[in-house]
Amino acid sequence: MMETILARFMIPGTFVKAEKFGPGLINDTYLSVFAEGDSIRKYILQRINTSVFRQPAQVMENVETVTLHMVNRLRAEGVKDPFAVTPALVKARDGGASVVDPSGGYWRVFHFIESAIVFDRIVDADHAYETGRGLGRFQALVADLPPARLHDTLPGFHHTPKYLREFDEVVKRDLLGRVSGVGAELRVVGRMRPLAPLLTDLLDSGALPLRVVHNDPKVNNILIHSVTREAVCMIDLDTVKPGIVHFDFGDCARSAANPLGEDAEDPDKVSFDLSLFEALTKGYLREASGFLTDRELATLPVSVQVITFELGLRFLTDYLRGDTYFKIRYPSHNLHRARVQFKLLDSIESVKDRMKAFILRC
């Protein structure tokens, strides 16, 4: 089947093989190999998970718009081979960006970036710096792309007040009788509740500009050069849509500056690593400071608090309603994840003034 699908794309050379590639948590991903004369070329073949992305045609329109824009920007900057440093689609033979198989599955092909590797966790301060720089570089490349050209494929994503309303409703109904066991977590939510509208109010008032953002800036979505260890580009563009830069920066900093990760064994040992935050921020601002407004810069620190609160809230809500969204490995897994995020949030609260001062110095 793989060879049949690949034959519908404009790939030069002769098909050699296609095999499963990467963890494949959402989409089905295959590394495809073609022989072209004495050369071997590789491509990434993916089938979009339509259970997660219910409007695959809109997702593909977004991906095509963003990748083409970045390739054109890179060419204008003098980059001779943009395909080597950014995700770029291979056209289908009918001129489209994807093909649909007889079962309704959506497939697309990307040029494979040979020089890059991925990491699941931050290794050190240098890696944090390059992670921030990779995010900033992506945002800089799409800073002049009008958000109105993209579909909102994830309505309500990162709308923290919406998640808070869902939480309140789940607590009120308490269908599984779990609320009595989360008293400490309820107190955290009560104390941190004022964080929820901070970003959305600024967006709604026009104080923060709407931009094209990635929405899933986790560490392993930023490719790192295998030799130089410099950031190459961001991948997994299915979540790209209109938003504010704070959704990306807050989530990236939240995850990168927590060395123990979202599944830390002991939540009490979780803390926000300020040195990793500073390294990531330096890298980010090296690329992004040229297009960010003063208001955007000033509100970067609070975005880390808001997004951390939001994720903890989502984990806790899912636990209370029966673990219907996040995959779990044991019955209290989502409660444990919420406790990790709330402990991280406490740690962020204790250094928030130092975060603000650092960004002002930068």
Report what the structure shows:
The structure is a single chain. With 362 residues, the protein is an alpha+beta fold. It folds into two domains: 113 residues, Phosphorylase Kinase, domain 1 (2-Layer Sandwich), CATH 3.30.200; 237 residues, Aminoglycoside phosphotransferase (APH), C-terminal lobe (Aminoglycoside 3'-phosphotransferase, Chain: A, domain 2, Alpha-Beta Complex). 44% of the residues lie in helices and 14% in strands. The chain has eleven helices and ten strands. The strands form three sheets. A five-stranded antiparallel sheet has the order 1-2-3-5-4. The longest helix is centred in the C-terminal third of the chain and has 29 residues. The protein is globular. The protein starts with a helix and ends with a helix. The model has no long low-confidence stretch (mean pLDDT 95).
Residues in helix, %: 40-55%
The chain-level mean pLDDT equals 95
User: In which order are the strands of the major sheet placed?
Assistant: 1-2-3-5-4
What is the count of helical runs? 11
Question: What is the third-level CATH name, the topology of the largest domain?
Answer: Aminoglycoside 3'-phosphotransferase, Chain: A, domain 2
